[in-house]
Amino acid sequence: MHRSDRRRTGFPFRSLATLLLVALPQTPALARPFTVAVSDRDGAPLAGVAIYFEAVDSAVMPAGAAAAASMDQVNLEFVPRLLVIQRGAEVDFPNSDTVSHHVYSFSAPKAFTLPLYKGEEHSPVRFEQPGVVILGCNIHDRMVGYILVVDTPYFAISDATGQAVVDGLPPGDYRLAAWSPEFNDSLPEMLGRLSMAPALESVSMRIDRLRSAPPAAGNSSLVWGEY
Amino acid sequence: MRAMAVLLLLLAGSVAADDDRHVFVTGVDTSLVQTSTPLTSWTEGGVGKLRYDEDHDGLRLSRAFFDYRGRLTSTLNVRATLNYNPDIDGELDFTEAYLEFRPVPNSAWRWRAKLGAFYPQISMENVDVAWSTPYTLSSSTINSWIAEELRTIGLEWSVQRDGFAPGSPHHFGAEAAIFFANDPTGAYVAWKGWSVHDRQTGLRGKLPLAPLPVIQAYGQLPGHDRHVEPFREIDHNAGFYVGGNYRYRERFRINMLHYDNHADPEAESGGQYAWATWFNHLGVQFALPGDIGLIGQWVDGRTQMGPDVGPTRLIDAYFDAWSTLATKALGRHRVSLRYDDFNLGQYDTTWFDNQLEHGDAWTVAWLYQHSPALRFGLEYVQIYTDRLAWMYYPDSEAATCGPGGIEPCDMTEKQLQLTLRWLFSNQSL
Fold first, then answer.
1. How open is the CA angle B364-B367-B370, to the nearest 5 degrees?
2. Which end of chain A is less congested by CB atoms within 10 angstroms, N or C?
3. Cis ω on the peptide bond leading into residue A25 (within 30° of 0)?
4. Any CB–CB contact under 8 A between A102 and chain B?
5. A20 and chain B: CB distance < 8 Å anywhere?
């Protein structure tokens, strides 16, 4: 299996052939938005895919606290379904529902349990290890959410048109990786190595491991009258 | 007295709370019913298949209930449903009452346990508050039967595995239970047959029997009570069931269950008899394009009671039924159409106790959720039954069958029901 070979041989896993550089206007400004256009192997745009840039030379990474984030509970669903955070970030679970939840995870990067009982206070959760943290609710078995903890502040999730926009990416050498809950495992797909020049504005990426866009978070009440 | 109790529960249920440690939902189903049947309803000791009949329709209280969910600890819950049925002697009783243990999963295997009295995981319709259905007013023949005489009074253990990895669309589960009581289960489906209704028997409930020849002074079971008490323990044998389920996202679900109450068919206590009853159930739920939901259920089983008389028991009946429901939600509206097909047969040759039955039913319903607290439902049920035993009751006007069952003993009964459901809760609904 060539895929597992790629995982074993380390980075870069793939030739830069899949990395198509497009649009190279001459504007030297730093920290401008950088766009990754994410598509499946047939070229159709993919929404809901997390992409992130890890510096090959970690000295490039800025120091400072990781930005806090929020994973809400709305209508018995985790919102957003997929949250990407930098390692060390604190995540709040505000619970916008009128009912209690009981969030838990048994994932290796962060196993925890957090009751979100109505009328009771609760603290944010800090995520210290990179990896995929799968969230469940022990009161509502159907709820599932994902937190991708990455070792970089440069990440984004592709929108409905497949565009993922990363802000403030300084020049340097990066590994570009992607992950989606539809991958069926917790390992990211390494998309390639990228030398970020000030002139570069966007790249197009094809995700091997997804054939089509993941389904929208299911609102089963459209079909089933569940209580 | 009972009305007072219901009123108090209504008040208790409407006191708002800051937390949801205790959740009360109180509901009242008030109905306007029009029936067209010459038969007296089974709820009045007749042989009619509907809950109401021409002498008992009009403005009716269908049920009032008080559903309680309490959180004892972060992993231990208590659930109970107190239900009031005005018919059959006015029954204020629990339909379910159990403890549920939900440990926080530490792997992809998620297991739960229930201890107490609760419905086994059979119905795919009755997923709304207090085991009502969000699709129709009446339950299908299979689920009406479950409501009449099936409850787990014991311990159920279940395990669920939601996919093998994140995002997997495949979900598997299994459950197993041991239970006591439920020994007379099978008596009612054999002697009354299948029906379509919205009535749930309480845990101490009694179900009236028509004047069956077999339980008369001259019959083979003169000591049998004129009621069936489905949740009585008679033989002290434990029953069991095992089941499995599979789900693909929200698009497809299949449930299977094998049930055996493991009753001693010769055991008797206080006019109630144990019926050895076992059955298999298969349920599927499928979402069609256009967000049309399809639910199908099928049950196939057998029940035996009484002394060994040659190749079979005094009573040895088999039963099967299936139903298909199509449903579509349109905003606050939901329309559903259901077809039921049902059969009963027998292996015994006991005189004047015939279980042969076949029939079908159409149900069409429109439900309108006006607000979270108020729902309107309009339902039409038409049930056709051919049941040979009706020839034993010349007064029942089952009518067309002559002595010896030369003519078919059949009847089509019709019911139009408009039901208003009011819900009150100490939480937002």
1. 165
2. N
3. no
4. yes
5. no
Using CB atoms, pick whichever of A181, A183, A224 lies closest to residue B293.
Answer: A224
A140 and A171 in a common domain: no
Q: Tell me the CATH number for domain B2-425.
A: 2.40.160.10
* CB-closest option in B104, B166, B334 to A146: B166
Does ipTM exceed 0.90?
A: no
Is there a single domain that holds both residue A77 and residue A47? no
Whether A225 and B128 lie within 8 Å, measured CB to CB: yes
* Interface contacts (A, B; CB < 8 Å): 99
Shortest Cα distance, chain A CAs vs residue B9, angstroms: 21
Asked if residue A56 belongs to a domain, the reply is: yes
Between strands B207-208 and B227-228, the pairing is antiparallel
Helix (H) or strand (E) holding B9: helix B2-13
β-strands A90-92, A69-70 pairing: parallel
Against a cut of 0.90, is the pTM above it? Answer: no
Please tell me the predicted confidence (pLDDT) of residue B388.
84
| Chain A residue whose CA is closest to B17 | A119
Count structural domains, chain A.
2
Judge: B250–A224 Cβ closer than 8 Å, yes or no.
yes
Q: Which two tokens stand for residue B219?
A: 């019959």
- Cβ of A102 within 8 Å of Cβ of B285? The answer is no
- Residues A139, A87 share a domain: yes
Instruction: Measure the CA–CA gap between A37 and A205, rounded to whole angstroms.
Output: 6
Residue A135's CATH number: 2.60.40.420
| Chain B CB contacts of A83 below 8 Å | none
The residue ranges of every structural domain in chain B are: 2-425
Question: Does A11 have pLDDT greater than 50?
Answer: no
Identify whether A219 is part of a domain: no
Is residue A38 assigned to a domain? yes
Q: What is the 8-class DSSP label of residue B24?
A: E
pLDDT for B402: 57
Q: Is residue A52 part of a domain?
A: yes
Do A146 and A165 belong to one domain? no
Q: Quick one: pLDDT at residue A217? A: 44
Residue corresponding to tokens 């007296």: B40
pLDDT tens by residue, B298-324: 999 999 999 988 888 999 999 999 999
Domain that holds residue A109: 69-150
Lowest mean pLDDT among A35-39, A184-188, B54-58, B414-418: A184-188
Cα distance from N-terminal residue to C-terminal residue, chain A: 45
A119, A146, A218 member nearest B19 (Cβ): A119
- Per-residue pLDDT tens digits for A206-219: 888 776 555 544 45
